[in-house]
Amino acid sequence: MSRLVTDEMMEEALNYLATSSEIIASARAQRLRAEFKRKRVRAKLILESNQSSAIAREAWAEAHALYHEACEEEVRAVEADEFARADRNKADTIIATFRTEEATRRAGSDFS
Questions:
Q1: Which end of the chain is more exposed for a tag (fewer CB within 10 A), N or C?
Q2: DSSP per-residue letters across the chain
Q3: Model-level pTM?
Q4: What are the pLDDT digits (tens) for 44-75?
């Protein structure tokens, strides 16, 4: 029976889970900081606008280069957070698959 998960893959997954908590937490924190920054930039720009209506002030703020930069920073932070979470999910899946394969192998050898 060929295996989907090698011992090396399992070792790498376990190592990643053992050492990635700080990376994942940092990515999540950066995502939140970027989201808060985007909101602060938008609010500040709305307050600085000299447009006559609230809708026009919001539109001016959202069209501003500083707001665009804050949005791009948030996108980069979201991307880093999602990659970190995907890597953790990948490691979890490798471990679960390895366990299933081992259980199946043991169960098969009990009947031999």
A1: C
A2: ---SS-HHHHHHHHHHHHH-HHHHHHHHHHHHHHHHHHHHHHHHHHHH---SSHHHHHHHHHHSHHHHHHHHHHHHHHHHHHHHHHHHHHHHHHHHHHHHHHHHHHHHHHT-
A3: 0.80
A4: 999 999 999 999 999 999 999 999 999 999 99
